[in-house]
Design brief:
Helix 2 runs parallel beside helix 3, helix 6 crosses helix 16 and helix 10 packs parallel to helix 11. The protein has 2 domains: 122 residues, Response regulator (Rossmann fold), CATH 3.40.50.2300; 248 residues, Rossmann fold (3-Layer(aba) Sandwich). Helix 1 links the parallel strand 1 and strand 2. 43% of the residues lie in helices and 17% in strands. The strands form 2 sheets. The chain has an 8-stranded mixed beta sheet with strand order 8-9-7-10-6-11-12-13, with helices on both faces. A 5-stranded parallel beta sheet has the order 2-1-3-4-5, with helices on both faces. By secondary structure, it is an alpha/beta fold.
Length: 388
């Protein structure tokens, strides 16, 4: 579930602007325009973080902070004071009252996001994320999704993960959010994967970051894998949404890039998973009905805040067929920009599956490999901008 931030400011324009910026980063926003309202909402909403103005007419931010710290329910809730008061004595007063961080207005959006992420990463509230080490920065979480099955989501996620590793030399983790429908294990010749299933047997607060790390498999491409079971009976684990969320939150602190193979559609599980993602890659097939369904999927994601560069659509041609639309025809029907077009390569895909090896490693000089490398470059540039 997306972290919830309570934004408190008596200036309505500031409240609206800051709330909108944070929503676009995937956070859930609750707003208060005065100190008394802030105290009530902090109790009722149990936010993960409070972004608090100091200069308010009825009760200033220092007093709000002292009262929050005096209540058991909010005594450890992280607080960032966000104010135009920039003197050293003002900052000292804020920390003395119990603030965790202090940010001076005006500020650049990326500075605000950096402070929010840092405070959320290092604070403890008894939630699954509390076990994350403060010394490790949260990785860039990327979901790969399609409007329907059979479009090559897993193949794209695997080859993109390998290209990210080759390009950045950073730690890359790929996992399947596909209970009972995992295919990576068979594609890469790992029989009967049990790691994810073992983690799902525990309650969210029983799983530690070490437990998750111990279940990761190091592939010869140097990426690490958390594989879903392919046993049909394990599809029942799809209802364990909170357990998946706990595991993915831990994964986010174990790698620099975390790729989630989400498969098709917006199930209740996927709906929760996308709230944890910094970016979503949408796999689009150039077939009329699929284009229409994908447009509906993108429209829904836009309502969930995945605009402003957080969506990345790729046109994935898996087969050569007269039924396929041309790129101009696709763009006539599809309103969102397409970043990469993959050419059909069924023979290479067959050889990749036969040799249990990612296509980009089996055919490093092929055009399709270059297209995966281009997608990795786009993702890398976006991740750098987010982290700045």
């Amino acid at each position: 579930m997306a972290e919830k931030i309570l934004v408190v400011d008596d200036d309505v324009d500031t409240l609206r602007l800051v709330g909108l910026m944070l929503q676009r980063q995937g956070y859930q926003i609750v707003a208060a325009s005065n100190g008394h309202q802030a105290l009530a909402l902090a109790q009722a909403e149990n936010p993960d973080l409070i972004l608090l103005d100091v200069m308010m007419p009825d009760m200033d931010g220092y007093e709000v902070t002292r009262r929050l710290r005096a209540e058991a329910a909010t005594s450890t809730t992280p607080i960032i004071m966000f104010t135009a008061k920039s003197q050293l004595d003002d900052k000292v007063a804020g920390f003395d009252a119990g603030a965790d961080d202090y940010l001076t207005k005006p500020t650049q959006p990326r500075e605000l996001f950096a402070h929010v992420k840092a405070v959320l990463a290092r604070t403890t509230k008894g939630k699954p994320i509390s076990a994350e080490p403060a010394s490790k920065e949260k990785g860039y979480v990327l979901g790969v999704l399609a409007a329907k099955g059979g479009l090559g989501v897993t193949t794209l996620a695997l080859n993109l993960a390998v290209c990210l590793r080759i390009r950045t030399r950073k730690d890359v983790i790929l996992t399947e959010i596909r209970p009972g429908e995992g295919s990576l294990a068979l594609e890469l010749s790992y029989l009967h994967p049990e790691g994810f299933s073992r983690l799902l047997q525990r309650k969210p607060d029983e799983v530690t970051i070490t437990d998750v790390e111990n279940e990761l498999i190091l592939h010869k491409s140097d990426i690490r894998l958390l594989l879903s079971s392919y046993h049909p009976n394990d599809v029942k684990n799809e209802v364990l949404v909170d357990r998946y969320e706990s595991i993915v939150r831990h994964l986010a602190f174990l790698g620099d890039y975390i790729l989630l193979d989400l498969g098709p559609g917006l199930s209740s599980l996927n709906d929760r998973m996308i709230s944890l993602c910094d970016e979503i890659v949408i796999v689009l097939e150039p077939v009329p009905h699929t284009v229409m369904r994908t447009q509906l999927l993108v429209d829904e994601l836009l309502t969930k805040g995945f605009g402003e560069g957080r969506l990345n659509v790729v046109l994935y041609n898996r087969l050569r067929s007269e039924m396929m639309l041309t790129m101009p025809q696709v763009q006539q029907q599809f309103k969102h920009p397409i970043s990469v077009v993959f050419t059909p390569a069924p023979e290479l895909a067959y050889q990749s599956s036969k040799n249990n090896m990612p296509l980009v490693l089996l055919n490093p000089d092929n055009l399709v490999t270059q297209q995966f490398a281009k997608l990795a470059e786009i993702v890398t540039k976006k991740s750098v901008r987010v982290r700045e």
